């Protein structure tokens, strides 16, 4: 039987960098030019199948980028296994905001969280303000994953989520029972092995050694 795991993923970044569009492209392979701003946060799920047939299910919390919602963010990144911090390659200020989010994650999220820095809107490279070299250098210095994507064309979107899935711990033995997935801040920190079910139907956790 192929292994199945479940992980909590949170998207962070300034408003209008394309977080929701990125998730929509990943989950439904769709793009909407006139997507409204997220209010609070949106919840979606999507699975990735790796080469060894291991299935990784992401529980995705797409957070609002507006400043008035910033105080809610810890509720969503608490106990997250991974985070995608998004910036807009055509707006240098959005990279500075991404750096702020990353510093916050490094201070307050679980120390073993997998963080990916994502430069969105690569289809607008003619208007680029953030060079690949600058962003990659920062990511390397901070030990982050890094990629550029285009939610509009789909370029790089599946690849970054697949790369995150490969970096998550998928081999450790199950331990404590998972709690309350599907709501912000709920459950233990580690991923859930969906193949291992207790009689009550509750999955069990995989300890995180990432």
Automatic annotation (TrEMBL):
InterPro entries the record matches: P-loop_NTPase (IPR027417), Small_GTP-bd (IPR005225), Small_GTPase (IPR001806)
Entry's Gene Ontology BP terms: protein transport; vesicle organization; vesicle-mediated transport
Main location (coarse class): membrane
Pfam families listed in its UniProt record: Ras (PF00071)
Its membrane topology: Lipid-anchor
One Gene Ontology term of the molecular function aspect: GTP binding
Residues annotated as transmembrane: none
Region (Disordered): 171-210
UniProtKB keywords: Cell membrane, GTP-binding, Lipoprotein, Membrane, Nucleotide-binding, Prenylation, Protein transport, Transport
GO CC term, one of those recorded: endosome
Subcellular location: Cell membrane
Bias-annotated ranges (Polar residues): 195-210
Keyword Membrane: yes
Superkingdom of origin: Eukaryota
PANTHER family in the record: PTHR47978
NCBIfam families attached to this UniProt entry: small_GTP
Name the UniProt record assigns to this protein: Ras-related protein Rab-5B
Gene: RAB5B
């Amino acid at each position: 039987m192929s292994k199945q795991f479940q992980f909590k993923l949170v998207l962070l970044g300034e408003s209008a960098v394309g977080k929701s569009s990125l998730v929509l492209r990943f989950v439904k392979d769709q793009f909407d030019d006139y997507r409204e701003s997220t209010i609070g946060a949106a919840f979606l799920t999507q699975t990735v199948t790796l080469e060894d047939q291991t299935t990784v299910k992401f529980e995705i919390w797409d957070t609002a980028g507006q400043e008035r919602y910033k105080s809610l963010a810890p509720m969503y990144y608490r106990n997250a296994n991974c985070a995608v911090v998004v910036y807009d390659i055509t707006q240098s200020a959005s990279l500075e905001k991404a750096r702020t989010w990353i510093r916050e994650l490094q201070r307050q999220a679980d120390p073993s969280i997998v963080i990916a820095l994502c430069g969105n809107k690569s289809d607008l490279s003619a208007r680029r303000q953030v060079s690949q070299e600058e962003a990659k250098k920062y990511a390397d210095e901070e030990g982050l994953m890094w990629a550029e994507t285009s939610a509009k064309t789909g370029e790089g979107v599946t690849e970054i989520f697949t790369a995150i899935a490969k970096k998550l711990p998928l081999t450790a033995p199950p331990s404590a029972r998972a709690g309350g997935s599907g709501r912000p801040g709920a459950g233990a920190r580690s991923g859930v092995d969906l193949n291992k079910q207790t009689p009550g139907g509750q999955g069990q956790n995989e300890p995180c050694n990432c």
